[in-house]
């Protein structure tokens, strides 16, 4: 059970690190070699700056939601270890899918992109 807790903490810190990375370490607009890459984010300088800040906020919020609230509750309920491993992998995949979908939807609505 301890290894599952360590894995959960690592994913929590990873999600916070990803959020900080998108916020402060993305490259400037014409370069765009480092940052959050979706078509909606790469559209213009304004969308590039806003999209990276948005991805930062969403990455941290989703990380706290999934890895600091939902998964620890499942650990507290004491499901079987094999189920918890599968759930952790599914939550990790859901984290990235949610991150991409939420940023895509919000960027399309904010900047009226199609």
Instruction: Report strand %.
Output: under 5%
By DSSP (H or I, 4+ residues per run), the number of helices equals: 3
Q: Helical proportion? A: over 70%
Contiguous uncertain segments of 5+ residues = none
**Terminal Cα separation, in Å?**
46 Å
Q: Could you give the count of β-strands?
A: 0
Shape, per Cα inertia axes: elongated
**Rg over alpha carbons:** 16 Å
Q: Main β-sheet, in a few words?
A: none
**What series of H and E elements makes up the topology?**
HHH
Q: Quote the average pLDDT.
A: 91
Structural class label: mainly alpha
Explain how this protein is built.
The chain is an all-alpha fold and 114 residues long. The chain is 76% helix and 0% strand. It has three helices and no strands. It has helices at residues 2-24, 45-77, 81-111. The chain is elongated, with a radius of gyration of 16 Å. The protein starts with a helix and ends with a helix. The model has no long low-confidence stretch (mean pLDDT 91).
């Amino acid at each position: 059970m301890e290894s599952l807790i360590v894995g959960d903490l690592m994913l929590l810190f990873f999600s916070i690190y990803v959020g900080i990375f998108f916020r402060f370490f993305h490259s400037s607009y014409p370069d765009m070699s480092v940052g959050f890459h979706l078509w909606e984010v790469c559209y213009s300088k304004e969308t590039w700056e806003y999209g990276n800040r948005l991805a930062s906020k969403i990455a941290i919020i989703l990380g706290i939601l999934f890895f600091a609230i939902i998964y620890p509750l499942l650990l507290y309920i004491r499901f079987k270890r094999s189920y918890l491993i599968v759930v952790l992998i599914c939550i990790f995949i859901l984290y990235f899918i949610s991150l991409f979908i939420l940023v895509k939807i919000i960027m399309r609505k904010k900047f009226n992109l199609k």
